Here is the input.
Amino acid sequence: MKLCLLSFIRNKNVAARKTNDDEKLIMDAARRMGHKITLIRAEKCHTYCGHRQLQVFYNNKPFPKFDAIIPRVSALGKVHLECIMMKHLELLGHTLVNRYYPCINAKNKLRTLEKMVLNNILVPKTISVTRNEYLDEAITRVGGVPVVLKTPFGSLGVGVAIVESKRSLQSSLDIFWGSSGTRHMLIQEYIKESNGKDIRVFVVGGKIVAAMERTAQEGDFRSNINAGGAGATVELTYEEKKMALKATKVMKLQISGVDILRSDKGPLIMEVNCNPGLKGITEVTGLDIGGEIVKFAVGFAKRQKAIRKK
Here is the structure.
């Protein structure tokens, strides 16, 4: 089959070197399985609207035809604009694995938490604030300090901090508000008993294909591998498996990385990622996760073709 890996990483981005490892895992798996795969950089694409016509161009030529497109949506800010070409491609009849609206919902942490709550999935207490005068009440509502401070958009552990006092929260907010481009900040309950650990569950096509426990490095509380955390294999409970699959279904994602905290109240969903990293979990588990993504994309493309023929 003819596949496309659609990357939203800009080559000049410092994080590109890390994400390219993930791209390579998918592309190597596709070629190993006998498929042709092309890496297309979203920054080289542009959209056209005019005279009753939509179009997407790549390097100033019409976007090539593929059996399936696998987007790697690494954009953080203004995702609805950065990724609008995905919606164009859908409207033009292209088959995408992880579609536009599920991706922009997953990229918004507050929207993700909202959808979890509406579907009876437990999450840490979280409140969104935009003004200083609401901080005292916000801290009280999530259970008091320490609290976790997050930007609504972010990944790889960027835009996350633990705050030990009301005074330091104010200082941290001033910094975040000045650098993040938004006045919305999330103040979240700190789950002490998680002890700097969380679980990443990798879901592909409604099936759990891998899981690992991540532990923060000494002196940090962020367990992300890219923030220096360490990974280890983990045995999921029945409840955790059920929760990861339900969260992915609620977000309408075909590929997801579900982050779970183990708490005294039971497992809590922290995030549902539409662009989960492959390298760390592949190295920890020894599983061919890139291959699982390719297998699903190929099968999904075949099913979509059969539907169109009816």
Observations:
- The two ends are 21 Å apart (CA to CA).
- The first strand starts at residue 2 and ends at 7.
- The CA atoms of residues 25 and 290 lie 5 Å apart.
